[in-house]
Design a protein that fits this description.
Blueprint lengths: L7 E5 L4 H12 L3 E6 L2 H9 L6 E5 L5 H14 L6 E4 L14 H26 L6 E5 L12 H20 L6 E7 L18 H7 L7 H13 L4 E4 L1 H12 L1 H10 L7
Parallel strand pairs: 1-2, 1-4, 2-3, 4-5, 5-6, 6-7
């Protein structure tokens, strides 16, 4: 609560993983939560984990701009007009060599991971501007620190999310809207069950086989809380993300060699 007023967060990709963990954390601290996802079963499961009367759910594809407007209108009608945080979290992971990837998969990755976030930012601005001290929070990835071999389109979208965050941090400062990004590495979510790099191994098997740690979604949720309430534009989450950030600055040659070996090609 802020001065006795219930704060409100709208989360895309709220049906599982990072979105679910973040919803649980914010609700436990008294926030009203709006959950959006294409997965209605996942939305229902997440909603069942939250206190009664604290949550509203919206089936939504982040590519659908009309749905963005309708659902933000509906959610803010339940929150007294407040939108303290818009969490642009929805995304998909698509792996494999780009030369072998279908145009459909490439287009879908870009339209959801980048255009979906741009839609949320452009449409969400008007709602955030009504609430003093509001924040746009975006989910980037360690794949936005250095391009990940085997995840080229995904990596490109996450670089775009990182750039958007930095640009809007400057652009929206005069509006009193904070813009932040969380930058997680390998998170314990269903995304890790996807095939890695076109192989028969899952991303989970590739990550653990490379000796890299998995970070729980609960840790990412706390990072989201810290990002919203802190002053850092980017909040790195997990040892791998911190190591990559250090290496990108001080040992770029090492990262280049790692990507040429195909190691680490599945960030987040």
């Amino acid at each position: 609560m802020a001065d006795g007023v219930q704060q409100a967060i709208f989360i895309t990709g709220g049906g599982s993983g990072i979105g679910r963990a973040t919803a649980i954390l914010f609700a436990s601290r008294g926030w009203r939560v709006g959950l959006a996802d294409v997965n209605t079963a996942g939305l229902a499961d997440t909603a069942a984990m939250l206190p009664a009367g604290m949550v509203s759910t919206y089936q939504m594809d982040v590519r659908d701009r009309d749905a963005w407007v309708a659902n933000l209108d509906a959610f803010t009608a339940t929150s007294g007009g407040r939108l303290d945080v818009l969490f642009n979290n929805a995304g998909i992971g698509t792996g494999g060599p780009i030369a072998q990837m279908s145009f459909d998969d490439m287009d879908r990755t870009v339209s959801i991971n980048l255009m979906g976030v741009l839609n949320g930012a452009k449409i969400g601005h008007a709602y955030l501007a009504r609430t003093p001290g509001s924040c746009l929070l975006n989910t980037a990835s360690a794949s936005a620190i250095y391009g990940s071999a085997g995840l080229a389109p995904y990596s490109a979208t996450k670089f775009g999310v990182r750039a958007l965050t930095e640009a809007l941090d400057g652009e929206w400062a005069a509006d009193g809207i904070k813009v932040r990004a969380i930058v997680p590495a390998f998170i314990e979510t269903p995304l890790l069950n996807s095939p890695a790099g076109g192989s028969n191994r899952s991303i989970r098997e590739t990550v653990t086989g490379a000796g890299l740690e998995l970070t729980s979604a609960d840790v990412v949720a706390q990072a989201a809380w810290d990002a919203v309430h802190g002053d850092k534009v980017h909040t790195y989450v997990g040892k791998t993300a911190h190591r990559m950030a250090f290496a990108a600055r001080w040992m770029p040659g090492k990262l280049r060699k790692m990507m040429r070996r195909g190691v680490g090609a599945a960030a987040e």
